[in-house]
């Protein structure tokens, strides 16, 4: 496996870097937060991303996409992560696009994929029901009645759930919580009755929601994939999402590290630059090494996904584990080396710390993925 970008991927990365620096610097995120924006992402910026083709990166050309693969969307998210760019790209351009492309019927693909490409709709994937990520512990029921399914239950911490037009919902059509069988995915449009969306206020000022379903009627044609095959499907969708979010976390860590290094070169203490202190140099060196390891892990995972590797689960968990640990380390060290000013609102650095603490938990913490990696490996 070559851990280098090809020409197309490098072009996407360079384009995303220029876009993030020019159109969505950290001040863009700050303004959305300060204005209490209802979506916590900007529709005009999203439409610019759509025109660049980012919403269709994972969608086949026959539906209007470019099919540039997981590596293509990951390098974009990495660059957007450096400026904390808020957008529905992850939930829609990665999760929704991949889910419908790989598990949808032809009718579902024709209906939804062109709308994702054009930016007409956004999506969210509703999985977890407790504060700890574990798809197998799904309790939401989907009961077959009069040739339709009745959904009842609650989903929590749904990424971009407060603004999504359609939800991809994991529900249990048989069995009990913890069983790896009996799970089914459904496409649910948010304009249906008996759906209650509660927007969450999180530390990183992003778009999350808890969603309640009370006797929501879903037709059979809205099943995504096969009945009771949702367990395998959701793991595949989540692994693609874990790789993509790991790339964004890498971008977060890279930006926090760069900011810290610049501070070490500028800040004086006892009449000398603090970057000359050997203890701080050692800590900076450790961060650098961990970032290099993270780059390799993320690149191996995204290339493995595009190569349909049999090791996808292991690669995804490895990338998410290392990205989480590295971002945790770098965000902590960045605050420590900046001192008290690092957590003041005047400085952008605190935003990276807050984002780190939330994104570390999305689709499984480092602890979750360490255990998953060990189980997959037979330990």
Structure overview:
By secondary structure, the protein is of the alpha+beta class. It is 51% helix and 15% strand. The strands form three sheets. The protein has a four-stranded mixed β-sheet, covered by helices on one side. Strand 6 (195-199) and strand 7 form a beta hairpin. Helix 4 runs parallel beside helix 7 and helix 9 (312-338) packs antiparallel against helix 10. The longest helix has 37 residues, at 230-266.
Quick rundown:
This protein is an alpha+beta fold and 379 residues long. The protein has helices at 7-23, 26-34, 43-51, 69-82, 89-103, 106-118, 230-266, 278-306, 312-338, 349-359, 366-376, and strands at residues 123-126, 141-145, 148-159, 166-172, 183-189, 195-199, 208-219, 223-224, 268-269, 272-273.
List keywords for this structure.
single chain, 379 residues, alpha+beta, Butyryl-Coa Dehydrogenase, subunit A, domain 1, Butyryl-CoA Dehydrogenase, subunit A, domain 2, Butyryl-CoA Dehydrogenase, subunit A, domain 3, 4-stranded mixed β-sheet, 4-stranded antiparallel β-sheet, 11 helices, 51% helix, 15% strand
Number of structural domains: 3
Provide the CATH superfamily of the largest domain.
Butyryl-CoA Dehydrogenase, subunit A, domain 3
* Largest pleated sheet: 4 strands, mixed
**How far apart, in Å, are the first and last alpha carbons?**
25 Å
Radius of gyration from the CA trace? 21 Å
Question: How are the SSEs placed, and which strands pair?
Answer:
Elements (H helix, E strand, L loop, with lengths): L6 H17 L2 H9 L8 H9 L17 H14 L6 H15 L2 H13 L4 E4 L14 E5 L2 E12 L6 E7 L10 E7 L5 E5 L8 E12 L3 E2 L5 H37 L1 E2 L2 E2 L4 H29 L5 H27 L10 H11 L6 H11 L3
